[in-house]
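User: Sequence in, structure out. Go.
Assistant: Echoing your sequence, followed by the structure tokens.
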Amino acid sequence: MGNTYSQLNAAQKRAVDIVDGSALVVAGAGTGKTRVIVDRILNLIEKGIPAESILALTFTEKAAGEMLDRVSEARGSVVLDTTIATFNGFGHSILEKYGNEWGLGALRLLGETGQLVFLREHLDDFELDYFAPVSNPDGQIKLLSDYVSLLKQQVVLPEDYKKYAEGLAANAADEKLEKQKHLEIARFFETYLNLCRSKGVVDYDDQIYLTIALLKARPNILHELQKLYAYILVDEFQDTNPMQSALIDMLAGANKNIMVVGDDDQSIYGWRGATLANILDFKKRYPAAADVTLIENYRSTQPILDAAYQLIQGNNPDRLEIMNQLDKRLRAQQDKGPTPVARHFSTLDAELAWVSSDVAERLKNGQDAGSIAVLARRNQGVQKMHETLELYDIPHAVAGLSNNIYQEPAVRQLIEALKTVGDPLDDLALYHTLSGPIFRVDASALAELAATTKREHEKLAEVLKASTDETLQSALRTLGSWRAHSHDQTVGALAYQMITDSGWKQHLYEQAENDADTYRQVQALSKYFKTLNEFEKFSGVPSVQAYLVNLETLKAAGSGFEDASLDISDTMVNVLSVHRAKGLEWETVYIIDCTEGSFPMRNYGSSLTLPDELKASQTTADAPMAEERRLMYVAATRARSELILTHADQHGSGAKRKPSRFVIELLGDVQSVTHAEEAQTELELFAPQTTVEAIKLPAGMTQDGKIVLSVSQIASWLECPQDFYYKYVLGMPVPSDPRQQYGTAIHAVIQSIHDGRREGKVPSLDVVLERVRAALPTAGYATARSRERAHAQAIKSATAIYERFLNDPLPIESEQAFAVNIPDLPLKMKGRIDAVYQLEGGVEIRDFKTSTSVTTPEKAKARATSSTQLTLYALAWQLMHDEMPALLTLDFVETERLGSVKKQPKSLETIRAKLQTMLENLQAGVYPAGKDHNYCKHPH
């Protein structure tokens, strides 16, 4: 250790010198925690501790690799017997070595894609009811698998969960439903574990969960491991979950030679099971543990550290500084720098434009691009910042721009091509494939042919065959060739043949050499092919048809770029989320969109939360707002010299945003500086004119100089103009949807009752149910059992609805069609109101919905409040009757929940302004992507 000691400060040296016993090293941001772990390993070896007796655990392969490299380098590049591994990697090695003694046998690891394929292919084994609603029979698989992951992280056993569920009260209707939910979860949990064992597969959590179970069942193996790993070190201990902590405690055993290193102020992974209880209660489990606190910071200036320290005080008293009476105020080891500042703007566009122009000015003045980072709390912010930097032509790298490769344009395009080959009846996929980059058939010509399919009620493929366009015929021949060989190939092999034969792969490679976006698409395709390979490993039949059956489940869950750190650039400006920035640092850091609702975020976690009775450990420090504050602390301490926070009043057409509470907590009374006007003007110079080639509105949308649109069409435009363009302007074929047909059948039931009551001829229940059976589709379901359940549920719902509407008040109008001209606008709006009821103070407009996900009054109210259709109905009624409706209601007929709102005249003024903007864009042929770019999913 000789010359290494001279480079350690006093606190670091104290930690490194600890040999025997337990220790808690509280290492603040930038205080050299990794160095302490590495040097302690080296010190133990120099003290005569066998290298194989040392176990060091961390969270990522990258961190483990760096630690191993540094230890090896210090020992003369000798490969050591010291075990330096991730928690999961270590657990897997134990299962591989000792699993046979417990009857496990050979194991295959399920990645995220493999797990979902496995669950989807065994869907019927789970006998889901509550979590398999008719409207989306396999859409809850990801929700359930995530919840089971949480149960494993809390070391909950299936029998314990079942006991909890069976003990729930079931007196009132809501209690019965809640009990049904938890009993179904218990059955899913137990069945999933049994399936995994019988099929010889494990998921990521099993690598530790099963290791704990193995060591409990075989104490002789545990004793062997305790003797082997006499010294344990744990990195980033604040990020451990109860399962990881339990494994550590078991291994530490009686000798308790364990050192944990972490910082409670940097715990930001509560959403994936981490709990601060592990580090906050460490001294309770190990009362004799030595305390070492590292506060000499080698990264940031004192003004940045002081601001961050001021911020994190908001989490007192649930911090180690208070609980263990420590001094955690970080001391900078470099010269003073500028005070952190905030910048205030009128709009988000102005904010992002100013950041871009400020970055451009820094680059112009010679600052290294790799020393600058822009951080955002949400991926949406990362996306918007990326787009604005693109407009300013600033070279930048985006780490994990999307955590879902299924949303990447190139991946979406390839999926559409696979759909086209796998399902000859999918007109929508055929349209996308022909018009996309694989074949590049002229969009205008395709739009005319698509219109013909609607007029003639023919399939698009049949109409295309009659075309004389040679480019089109060549594309159809190629598709036919792929389809002919699809049964002999795996889906991965077919996909590779498609991108190769079409020349698209070569085109992408050539473009990627000079275009960053294309390069990203090539990376996304590479990741996508890995998911195809994993699908092939765990699917019974790895064909394109089997893949398409599983596709919606895989897409609903997403598939992330595994290691966003690979996207970090040393030579370009970096744009990334705060979570991805942990462990990194830059000279200049911007933190954008520091507003309430964005940072801190308002919505946290899943709808399924673990009952307190089953939690392994609890602490108020895990509260969502406390974690949001820690996230800001992490973001602020990424900056070495300059920290700049930005926030804007207006985000689109929504309500005015308030500055984040964290801005004040960081900076105190420092005044923000406004740059809004200058930045807005500059941004307008870069505004894109349109995202797609304009095509004239169909003839049916124009009449007497006015644009004629239905309420649903208007709502579609307001949600996503580009989606409107694809659906209604291009007229692309829309695949049949069992949920839509089911909804239509239920609406018909309600209407038949209303009409029958008015005419004194109410049809019998048997007649109504026979009509429902005839209206229900037979195709489009995930499995045969899903179809049977859907039909059974439809009959059950129709029966309940029949009984309800026989006794409910009769509306004064039902299924009333209307067409109104909007004054001062060249717009005629058409629609049909489900029902109008007479109230004492006016009328109530009611819209019937068949969604089964709205199970509470709060959800119903929220849906009604945000409903554009209700506002349009209010506008139509006001124009027709010169009065506002007293009430507007969404009636969720299956769950019997009502959500009602009252609209004020101001609401109509707002919607009229939006309609005017819509008309201006329609007349100009402009169809921008929808809010946050999440609605428009069409490849182009």
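User: And one key feature?
Assistant: Confidence is low (pLDDT under 50) at residues 559-565, 676-694, 932-940.
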